[in-house]
Amino acid sequence: MKTASLVATLAAVAIPLAAHANAGAGHAAPAFTLTDIHGKTVNLADFRGRTVVLEWNNFGCPFVEKHYGSGNMQALQKKYGADVVWLTVNSTSTASPDYMKPAAVDTHLHEVGAAPAGYLMDDPGSVGRAYGAKTTPHMFVIDPKGVVVYNGAIDDKRSTNPEDVKTARNYVAAALDEMKAGKPVTTATTAPYGCSVHYR
After folding, report:
1. Rounded to whole angstroms, how far apart are CA atoms 51 and 142?
2. Residue 114 carries which DSSP code?
3. What domains does the chain contain, in order, with CATH numbers?
């Protein structure tokens, strides 16, 4: 990532809560159909009855690199993979310098040991806009009834420092643990942080 681009993304760390009201906690998750990096069609409706995690991603973003470079995101995907459907979504425009073709994404996923149930390409940005996804990462948890129960940041350490993962409060993990215990999600909405999604 070029220096000017990095400065611009770092300046976009704080995102107002109102900016992601499209898929607010307590509301039905917007339906979508996307194609994954292997050319398979993935429909959110296919996972009705299961918990779904949506993770907005752009491997060119230093905030995303924080969570993958530290192994944090992969650990979450593997820990909860048996209980939830973890879908990584990329809404980066094909015109963006950060855009990666599906084959390159597939290679990178293997290099970093990532294990999402699917990596979905949304280069038109329609799904990202439907959810109001503003940053990479921006996390959503959808319950088995298709209702958003968490929308926001992955954790409370708003930095690019991988060391901060060790002491962070992980909102996604907390939400999933509470759901598994049959409890309501205590923190359902937070302000996401990261790089702005590079929409078309």
Report:
1. 6
2. -
3. 54-196 (3.40.30.10)
pLDDT tens-digit profile of 44-83? 999 999 999 999 999 999 999 999 999 999 999 999 999 9
Cα separation, 159 vs 43, whole angstroms = 33
Gyration radius from the chain CA atoms: 15
CA dist., res. 137 & res. 173, Å (int): 15
Quote the CA–CA distance of 89 and 86 in Å, as a whole number.
10
Which of 7, 2, 4 lies closest to 160 in space, CA to CA? 7
Token pair, residue 139, equals 């996390």
Identify the CA nearest to 166 among candidates 84, 66, 83: 66
Which two structure tokens, joined as six digits, stand for 170? 């992980």
What is the distance between the alpha carbons of residues 72 and 65, in angstroms, rounded to a whole number? 10
